[in-house]
Specification:
Structural class: alpha/beta
Largest sheet: 6 strands, mixed
Number of domains: 2
Low-confidence stretches: none
Bound molecules: guanosine-5'-triphosphate, magnesium ion
Helix content: 10-25%
CATH architecture of the largest domain: 3-Layer(aba) Sandwich
Oligomer: single chain
Distance between the termini: 40 Å
Mean pLDDT: 90
Number of helices: 7
Shape: elongated
CATH topology of the largest domain: Rossmann fold
């Protein structure tokens, strides 16, 4: 099972209490105050880690707490600070407040580290309250509680290109052929049940882009039919969308109808998604009806379509190049 969304509760450690104590030494019957301060509670940090694939760990253990600070002690001893905890999350995870739904933090790259919850301050020992007018202070303060929070962790895959298509269009097959990733493929719908990111290399141009294969969409995806909505979030952050159509129309599918449904689902899910730069590729061009269907398709849809076949690798070189060009264009625009 792949967990890309889980509910968790984290708490930072409480501060240790300040200490109330007076020096007791053999020849010093009225020793001064020597109660030390409490230690600070440990904070809760999150860090992006490419070695963490999903949120399974947090599904099984949703509660995490950092150590409390230790109380101060006599002889002016400061209590030890509580150890912080650092929670490793998949790159692309956002932390959302469970009550308000507001995003609070995110880790976008390997090593990104954020302090999510601050540990409580330690209390002051009575030694701190000594003054010229108060030689034997009886006050001290308690440690402050650490911050706590109920969150939802959500992974949003980060890749340059997001592959969008109906189940069985051949998305995973393409990723297998073009990149180092090897998602499962199969002649049945919903073979892919979690997103996979592959790296597409351009050795001659010293470039590389990442491509995310996400589970197939069906009509109603934006309303949560199929695996839809849960997975559309994985293309929210892609720079370019590659819409893949089964141009053979396997199992009585109609590529034009598929295209319209996909466009509509993207728009319904999030208007911004439908406005992302998009490329259309017609897969399965090795099949007998594909060419005829492509001609009919192009009569209705004027955008350029890239015909490919994952069987013969027809059209791969051109598709690869145009993907790079589009991604570089968006990167350049983002850099401005
Ligand atoms: N003839 C032909 N078959 C293809 C081509 N590309 C993929 N297929 C077949 O189409 C079927 C579906 O391929 P997948 O890559 O699993 O499809 P998918 O889009 O990832 O499907 P989901 O994961 O279910 O969304 C497999 O049986 C592939 O062998 C192609 O270019 N030509
Ligand atoms: Mg697949």
């Amino acid at each position: 099972m792949f967990y890309d969304e889980v509910k968790v509760s984290f708490s930072a450690g409480n501060g240790g209490d300040g200490c109330f104590s007076f020096r007791r030494a053999k020849y010093e019957p009225k020793g001064g105050p020597d109660g030390g301060d409490g230690g600070r509670g440990g904070g809760v940090y999150i860090v992006g880690d490419t070695n963490v694939a999903d949120l399974t760990d947090y599904h099984y253990k949703p509660g995490w707490k950092a150590k409390n600070g230790e109380p101060g002690r006599g002889s002016d001893q400061h209590g030890a600070n509580g150890d912080p905890i650092t929670l490793r999350l998949p790159v692309g995870t956002i932390v959302v407040d469970r009550d308000s739904g507001d995003p609070i933090a995110e880790v976008l790259e390997h090593g990104d580290k954020v302090l999510l919850l601050e540990g409580g301050e330690g209390g002051k020992g009575n030694a701190q309250f000594k003054s010229s007018t108060n030689q034997a202070p009886r006050q001290f303060t308690l440690g402050k509680p650490g911050e706590t929070g109920d969150f939802r962790l959500i992974i949003k895959t980060i890749a340059d290109v997001g592959l969008i298509g109906f189940p069985n269009a051949g998305k995973s097959t393409l990723l297998n052929m073009l990149t180092n990733a090897h998602p499962k493929t199969g002649a049945y719908p919903f073979t892919t049940i979690f997103p996979t990111v592959g790296v597409l290399e351009y050795p001659e141009q010293y470039e590389r882009i990442t491509v995310a294969d996400v589970p197939g969409l069906i009509e109603g995806a934006s309303e949560n039919r199929g695996l839809g909505h849960r997975f559309l979030k994985h293309v929210e952050r892609c720079k370019v969308l590659l819409i893949m159509l089964d141009m053979q129309g396997t199992d009585g599918r109609d590529p034009l109808a598929d295209y319209k449904v996909l466009k509509n689902e993207l728009k319904l899910y999030m208007p911004g998604l439908a406005r992302k730069p998009e490329l259309i590729c017609a897969n399965k061009m090795d099949e007998p009806d594909a060419l005829e269907n492509l001609k009919a398709f192009q009569k209705k849809v004027k955008e350029k379509v890239y015909p490919i076949s994952c069987v013969s690798d027809e059209g791969f070189a051109e598709l690869k190049q145009v993907l790079l060009d589009e991604v570089l264009q968006v990167r350049a625009a983002e850099a401005d």
